[in-house]
Amino acid sequence: MDMSSIIAGLPLFQGLTSNQCAALAGIAQRRYYSRGQVFFSEGDDADGFYVILAGKVKIFKLSPDGKEQIFHILEAPEPFGEAAVFSGTNFPASATALVETPVLFFPTTKFVDLIRQDPVLALSMLGLLSLRLRKLTTLVENLSLKEVPGRLAAYLLYQIRDNGTNPVIELSVSKNQMAGLLGTIPETLSRILRRMAEENIIRTDIRTITILDQKQLADLAEGIRKLS
After folding, report:
1. What is the pTM of this model?
2. I need a labelling partner for 110 at 20 to 30 A (CA). Which of 7, 73, 121, 187 fits?
3. Same domain flag for 44 and 115
4. Count of domains in the chain?
């Protein structure tokens, strides 16, 4: 598939004309990152943004004492690094490939030049940027106002996809990564998952979590009840 066709199929650029996609194809670069390879580190110049074609990317910060806080685990076809490009600032967090991850890279200078010529390119990205901001706001609220069981319950509710009577969540991240997203440690996460299972709120398998009692899970998320 040629570059213009790939770009036309990305939600970020949905609705653009063939000429606009061709213009973007003219500046896009295919790049391949292996597991553990760094895209950028916090504070680096925002020299461009990325769109994931396959694989997974972790967006995170490190505290002065080395503690990791994960903000997002992203998969295709999501973009990342775009907010810093629009604001003209440095990258506010770091990004690392969790598995082999091919991406499209759009250099800042060339992309901004295209926007100056055709502002519709920027408008097409506003919806996705707004959604990302809402997700980040929810994360900050959960980390600052809820205890770990409430954070986990809120995370599971967010991940639910309808699947019959008992929604089943396919885990796309490891439990270590989930712990990082929730601002806790894997041992604490495992203990809380076990307690939720003992109280028949969830059932856990290697790569899935089945929600058995959505109301109890919602009560945990809202702080109405606590685990015994």
Report:
1. 0.71
2. 73
3. yes
4. 2
